[in-house]
Amino acid sequence: ELKVEQNPLFLSMQEGKNYTIYCNYSTTSDRLYWYRQDPGKSLESLFVLLSNGAVKQEGRLMASLDTKARLSTLHITAAVHDLSATYFCAVDRGDKIIFGKGTRLHILP
Amino acid sequence: SAVISQKPSRDICQRGTSLTIQCQVDSQVTMMFWYRQQPGQSLTLIATANQGSEATYESGFVIDKFPISRPNLTFSTLTVSNLSPEDSSIYLCSVEGTGAVGTEAFFGQGTRLTVV
Fold first, then answer.
1. pLDDT digit string, tens, across residues B21-51
2. Looking at residue A73, which CATH number applies to its domain?
3. Which domain holds residue B42?
4. Can you point out the beta strands (E) in A26-102?
5. How close B108 comes to chain A (CA, Å)?
6. A31, B104: Cβ pair inside 8 Å?
């Protein structure tokens, strides 16, 4: 059974600081997603990671994938309040997508 | 990319009634997925809907409670039956489509259901 473990589940940080969210998964997969969700809203796709060593960056967010370690990271650089949201990683094994529990990120001004 | 229109966006329903959620996609897709997101929780897959066949339900979800229709390659409905307050959640439909880097998952806007 594919399991996706995300940590931390809650993160409160100061603006300007850097931090990393970790996503471990238990079996091989076709692709890994990172999503952002604002309260009461649907999911916004941030990154799709396909291959080992993939690194993608968009603004202050950078995602990486290590398929050998079954680990993906979402790194936040110089956080700003607008990045406050819940971030989900999700692993696509082809027939279904399994989500992590999400990281609720609160950035303090 | 795939554009998904999901209706209604929210509803408040009496316990014991049912709610049917519609999901329309702007392109033909083989599989459509229905998820539930309980308050403060992650997304849980309810079922996978293939056109022309019975939906495949995940453990803990049954057809009598969550009947699904898939009449064609662009449309699906999820009904949540015999509502109880525990059914209060966000329900999302999802499809796989072609994005900037190949196949990826796209989500509808979600339906926020409150059962009173």
1. 999 999 999 889 999 999 889 999 999 998 8
2. 2.60.40.10
3. 4-115
4. 31-37, 43-49, 55-58, 61-66, 71-76, 85-92, 97-99
5. 7
6. yes
